[in-house]
Amino acid sequence: MILNNTLLPWQQQAVEKMIKLKVGALFMESGTGKTIITLEIARRRVEAGRIDAIVWLCPCSAKDNIRREIIKQCPEELCGLVTICGIETLSSSIKANSYLLNLTETKSCFLVIDESLLTKNPQAYRTRNITRIAARCPYRMILNGTPISKNEADLFAQFYLLDWRILGYRSYWSFAVNHLEEDEYGKIRRVLNTEYLAEKISPYSFEKRKEDCLDLPDKKHSVEYFRLTKQQWAEYGKVADRLLHEIIEWQPETVYRLFSALQAVISGKKVVFNPSGTHFKTEEMFPVNPLENPRMEAAARVLEGLGEEKAIVFCHYESEVIQLGGLYPEQAVRFDGRTSQKDRAYALREFAGKKKYLIANKNCGGYSLNLQFCHNIVNMSHDWNLGTRLQAENRIHRLGQKTKVRIIDICADGTLDERILECLMRKENILDGIRQAIQNNSGSREAMKKCIYGSRYHHEIFDCSELEDKDG
Question: How many whole angstroms separate alpha carbon 205 and alpha carbon 161?
């Protein structure tokens, strides 16, 4: 039993490291081969009689693409051992959770968590449910293009799913005590002793960037600025004043409400609060002519400037998808949560053919798509998530791309938009630091056998030798 494609040198290197471990992390950018590496590891373990089932968890939007990739790469007998489930499904589906708990109880399973940053919140229902499933699986692996999307605190839940002894903390509280410095409102101000975290995860991680192994064209980032109208500035100030005065404590939900309302305004919406002021809805500020909205006008200006070149436009709001599609009814196809699976396949064929624009959101269009025939991305509006942003860029900046990739951000001058883009840049710098630290800590076998847990209050040593697969 062999795979249908031959592994490239760095992929073989990853297999040789990970096959010796029962748990591990592949932090490899899209296009470098996380899937084929994982399938080769699974194939070897099946042949060795160590596993008889593979549970593959991934974003719901990526399930069909993962299924197609597995069928493409694997012989039929290996395909029959794979169960694919959406990570989001495990947030609430009793049926899905019960099925996987029973499967992992009755079979020796290899658990694969693809896009593991979706489990970074240790308090989320999906993370708790996956933790229960993971505890029954003797072999576990997490896959992601980046180890973090916000800060180093993202590492805790992901590596806890592999084994708590890797970082040495039995709970998020003990992790936070040793590594997180918070302000008076509970917001993380900075992460401490990050070198320790990098040293601990290094023996169990394999990290590879596209530029390290693929000959890809450069990515060029640029920003297209626009100014809010007087009407928008008045609404922006009114919303900011109201919400800032109502905030008593800077709790995450109140800050989120403030930022969400401001983002709505700079995207061309009015904010209407309910009588209690605890919730709000939005109404279009420019309902008759979308081009009166300066953000929409800026996006149209960018698209017109691309001439006959294709572009993917990532939108944050469904209304943006609808309005932009209405401006280019003969040239654009829609690809978001309202698009059925059947229509998505049709939309991708249309975009690969005569259509110029794929208008999408990152949750649907940011994962598992191969769109190398396009080399332009326009970010119509923004969120704070670095991981989904990088994933979206990787739809076109991957193996097979022959042309320089252009990433164009539409940004409202002097507003929260600028803060979001600055924040994303800082996160990317943190990510580069973690990557370098992982590479600098090679992770010897001695380091894997003894994980030292350095606490402010006590000092323990945990034997992690059983995480090795000695006959792997």
Answer: 14
Name the residue ranges covered by the structural domains of the chain.
9-213+442-467, 219-420
**For residues 179 and 154, what is the distance between their CA atoms, to the nearest angstrom?**
12
- CATH number belonging to domain 9-213+442-467: 3.40.50.10810
Q: What is the pLDDT of residues 248-291, one digit of tens each?
A: 555 666 777 788 889 999 999 998 887 766 678 889 999 889 99
In this predicted structure, the answer to whether residue 74 has a pLDDT above a threshold of 90 is: yes
| Residues with Cβ within 8 Å of residue 99, at least 6 apart in sequence | none
Does this model's pTM top 0.85? My answer is no
Considering the domain 219-420 in this protein, what is its CATH number? 3.40.50.300
Positive/negative CA dihedral, 115, 118, 123, 125: negative
Residue 400: how many CB atoms within 10 A of its CB?
A: 12
* DSSP SS3 for 107: coil
Q: What is the dihedral of CA 15, 386, 406, 302, to 10 degrees?
A: 150
Cα separation of 337 and 395, whole Å?
A: 18
> Taking a C-beta distance cutoff of 8 angstroms, is the pair 266, 417 a contact?
yes
Report pLDDT digits (tens) over 349-394.
999 999 999 999 887 776 767 888 999 999 998 888 887 888 888 8
Kind and range of the H or E element at 420? helix 416-440
How far apart are alpha carbons 148 and 151 in whole angstroms? Answer: 6
For residue 243, what are its two tokens?
């919400």
